Amino acid sequence: MKLLVLGGTRFLSREVATQAVARRWDVTCACRGESGTVPDGAAHLPWDRAEEAPAAVAEGAWDAVVDVTRLPSHARRAVEATPGAHWVFVSTISVYADNASPAMEPLLEPIIDDVDLSVDPEAYGGMKVACEQVVRSAAASSLVVRPGLIVGPGDPTGRFAYWPQRLARGGEVLAPGRPEDVVQVIDVRDLATWLLDACEARTTGVFDAVGTPTPLGQLLAETAAGVGDLEPQLTWVDADFLEAQEVAPWAGDGSLPLWLPRPEYDGMLAHDPSPAVAAGLRLRPLAETAPGCLDSTVTALTPEREAEVLANWHTR
Q1: Which residues contact 38 (CB under 8 A, 6 or more apart)?
Q2: Where does the pLDDT of residue 83 fall: very low under 50, low under 70, confident under 90, or very high at 90 and above?
Q3: How far apart are CA 280 and CA 181, in angstroms?
Q4: Confidence of residue 35 (pLDDT cuts 50, 70, 90)
Q5: What is the pLDDT of residues 203-240, one digit of tens each?
Q6: CB 298 within 8 A of CB 162
Q7: In this structure, is the dihedral angle defined by the CA atoms of residues 23, 27, 31 and 35, taken in order, positive or negative?
Q8: Angstrom distance (rounded) from CA 119 to CA 213
């Protein structure tokens, strides 16, 4: 297989390139190369995607292309330059307009112009919709995958890694919301393997690429087991109290990752993985994912702040 990875230096695109090299494929990573190096065994083709594709992209005779871009102009240039390749485009569940529902509809309105997410972060989903449309209308054949929360080694966000690291420290653990709240994650290694299988099989269609929907209490228990704690000391604190304590949901400074406002986000991490599983996606247990997250950078609730919130909860 002659594979073109658009990217190849960070997280999912790097994992795709790494696994493709391990399969002894002919792998080229087209990118600026400013976010890191491409994996050993892959060729680096310099390309600033704000500019037209270099001749080597158009002349590559690629069997397949894997792209993770969020910018519509980048998708258009790349598809135009590789008209004969099978395209695997990594989109997102953020294309859905209703986070309260796990249904694969309705989609957001497409945003066909490139938007700076530091100015308007809400444009992310609409731009991904536009990218999907470009790929599905112009590529020779295509697969569109819409992942939820991707986790595992190399995760730059820490949105799941907080939990293996926190549970590995032991002691009383602040658990947000209700243990029955459903969440889901997908290991980057499992997703990359499936994307490459899809390249080889020229799989087509649109799939939610997600992990098994799991109650948060079960996810934390399985994660704890993966880092050696078989009896985690979880103290469940309700959403109203967390909000009053100014604990942020989801991600960022002062946040508790995986905690989402309910019921408005009941569907965001509850999508159905069975169509993707039927198409070849294989999902590892959470206990196997957790150890690979212990070295990830995490920006979330600090230990001191967690202790403060727990103390306030016990004396409320």
Answers
A1: 8, 9, 14, 17, 29, 31, 44
A2: confident
A3: 27
A4: confident
A5: 999 999 999 999 999 999 999 999 998 999 999 999 99
A6: yes
A7: positive
A8: 33
Domain 2-147, what architecture?
A: 3-Layer(aba) Sandwich (3.40)
CB 276 within 8 A of CB 212: no
Q: How far apart are the first and last CA of the chain?
A: 62
Nearest alpha-carbon partner for 68 in 106, 43, 35? 35
With bands split at pLDDT 50, 70 and 90, how would you rate the model's confidence at 258?
Answer: very high
Q: Which is nearest to 104 in space by CA: 259, 12, 208?
A: 208
Give CA–CA dist 55/61, Å, rounded. 11
The rounded distance, in Å, linking the Cα atoms of 177 and 193 is 33
d(CA 78, CA 164): 38
Convert the pLDDT of each residue in 105-155 to its tens digit.
999 999 999 999 999 999 999 999 999 999 999 999 999 999 999 999 999
B/e letters for 75-86, b = 16+ CB within 10 Å, e = fewer, are bbbbbebbeebb
The CA–CA distances, whole Å, from 208 to 135, 145, 149, 268, 277 equal 16, 6, 11, 11, 10
93 CB-near residues (< 8 Å, 6+ apart) = 146, 147, 148, 208, 210, 268, 271
